[in-house]
Amino acid sequence: MSDKIILGYWNTPGKAQPSRYLLELSGVKYEEVRYSYPAAEWFGRDKYALGLPFPNLPYLLDGEVKITESETIFDYLIQRLNKVELLGQGNDKYIVDNLKNLFSDIGTRMYIYSQKEGEEQTKFLSEQILPKIRDIHKFLGQKEYLLGYFTAADLYFLCFAKGFKNTLPDSYNEFAATFNPLIQRLENIPQIAKYISEGRHP
């Protein structure tokens, strides 16, 4: 393997953000390639020049390892960086995985929501997004972390909650009293706090 991991994605948080947090937590040396629209560097240069078997964003290069898809990258990094404890203890690992998939699903629904307008958009939010967020809100309750201890699910939560807060602040207010303390707790982790303070968070 190379001595430097390369992570490529759009210049937004999006699907690569949990992996960015994981890399920061590990302290490993890595490099980012961030693409901005219209992304001539990606579509016209890198997409088919990097040797990726299934070209897509995000991608990760680590010596002979060349992979795409956000979940594949995150799972690879968990093993590569010796952070398997973040997958949860015992049967909790299934809840961690459940939450990771749930946050990804909500992210997809948020995108669908953004493509709708008027009453159709309002109905979609009410019926397809907020009920799932209420389930998360109930599950978190007064715990310090989603599982009661720090796991990968909390990194996914941080990405979800910040996006939700920025995109739908009025709807977020319903959950703020429960979500804000966890956001603050996660952003106060020294490695993540440093990452944010240095202006490297997209």
TrEMBL record:
What does the sequence similarity comment in the record state about its family? Belongs to the GST superfamily. Mu family.
* Native species: Tetrahymena thermophila (strain SB210)
Single GO MF annotation: glutathione transferase activity
Q: What does this protein do?
A: Conjugation of reduced glutathione to a wide number of exogenous and endogenous hydrophobic electrophiles.
Q: Which UniProt keywords apply?
A: Transferase
According to the entry, every stretch annotated as the GST N-terminal domain falls at 3-85
Give yes or no: UniProt keyword Transferase: yes
Tell me which Gene Ontology terms the entry assigns under biological process: glutathione metabolic process
Q: What is its EC number?
A: 2.5.1.18
| Membrane-spanning residues | none
- What top-level class of enzyme does the UniProt entry assign? transferase
| Name this protein carries in UniProt | glutathione transferase
Q: Which reaction is the catalytic activity of this chain?
A: RX + glutathione = an S-substituted glutathione + a halide anion + H(+)
